[in-house]
Amino acid sequence: MVQTNEVVNDSLSSNGLIHHTNGSLEERLDELRRLMGKAEGDPLRIVGVGAGAWGSVFTAMLQDSYGYLRDKVLIRIWRRPGRSVDRATAEHLFEVINSREDVLRRLIRRCAYLKYVEARLGDRTLHADEILKDGFCLNMIDTPLCPLKVVTNLQEAVWDADIVINGLPSTETKEVFEEISRYWKERITVPVIISLAKGVEAELEAVPRIITPTQMINRATGVPIENILYLGGPNIASEIYNKEYANARICGAEKWRKPLAKFLRRPHFTVWDNGDLVTHEVMGGLKNVYAIGAGMVAALTNESATSKSVYFAHCTSEMVVMHGMGRSWQKGD
């Protein structure tokens, strides 16, 4: 992806879609900086926590768009250190590099190409955090990203972050944010957290219920739920980075969701906003379950239109129930 300081004009209806001229990227950044109370010379610090496919792509999109404004924003990503790249993956990565002239030239300019040659020959072991600095996500080798600032020390990554992007799976969110909370005990300002995590976890204490990633973050850190948002949609990370059209919703308190939707919006990536946080989080996980079920129904019924209709009707009914439950949870019932 190539950064462009573009101006985008969008129209919008009253259901939470785009509703004003977006302006230039720098203007959007300045607007968000003002909202967060950033002084001149104090960069907005954005940190991605977790370097899976979607977390890496999301951080790379921000770096592509705003990374050139170094005096106004600092974008980093945290991932655990130590994971090695196996020989087969290193060989495939070398093929990907040599198939992309732009990537090849970039690595040569950065004096980083030789280590991939050595890894291809088996003379060196690469590590996931090492290749991520050059723009290669271990979960998505075929889609090179822009170079990223990678931090492997969690405390260093998050202690002064203004915006934290949760790119962890729901199964790891609670553990990592409990650790993060220890580094935020002395904080004066409250960060904004955008969770990309899909799915829910089960909670059995008192009354059995499900708990969403934003609720896990709220409990683990004490950050008010008004400062925690969810962003998701029916998207594939590699397609978004390759600028195939996609859309998503950012859900949460109005104070943050509307300016962040504007900040994240791109010509190929439409970001809507909505106040129903829990329902969208739950549906983010359920849509994958529904997709698997639809494939099974199609295969088992020989593409029967009636069977598909019945299945879709049941899915829709469940969505309506989950929407009602989501409203109840958000009220604390």
TrEMBL record:
Family per similarity comment: Belongs to the NAD-dependent glycerol-3-phosphate dehydrogenase family.
Q: What is its EC number?
A: 1.1.1.8
Question: What keywords are assigned to this protein?
Answer: NAD, Oxidoreductase
Active-site residues, Swiss-Prot/TrEMBL: K287 (proton acceptor)
Q: What is this protein called?
A: Glycerol-3-phosphate dehydrogenase [NAD(+)]
Q: Which residues are recorded as binding NAD(+)?
A: A237
User: Does Transport appear among the keywords?
Assistant: no
Mind listing the GO biological process terms from this record? carbohydrate metabolic process; glycerol-3-phosphate catabolic process
Which organism is the protein's source?
Citrus sinensis (Sweet orange)
Q: Which InterPro entries match?
A: 6-PGluconate_DH-like_C_sf, 6PGD_dom2, G3P_DH_NAD-dep, G3P_DH_NAD-dep_C, G3P_DH_NAD-dep_N, NAD(P)-bd_dom_sf
* Domain Glycerol-3-phosphate dehydrogenase NAD-dependent N-terminal, chain residue ranges per copy: 148-249
Domain of life here? Eukaryota
Glycerol-3-phosphate dehydrogenase NAD-dependent C-terminal domain ranges (all copies): 276-320
Q: Which reaction does it catalyse?
A: sn-glycerol 3-phosphate + NAD(+) = dihydroxyacetone phosphate + NADH + H(+)
MF terms per GO, please?
glycerol-3-phosphate dehydrogenase (NAD+) activity; NAD binding
Q: Which Pfam families match?
A: NAD_Gly3P_dh_C, NAD_Gly3P_dh_N
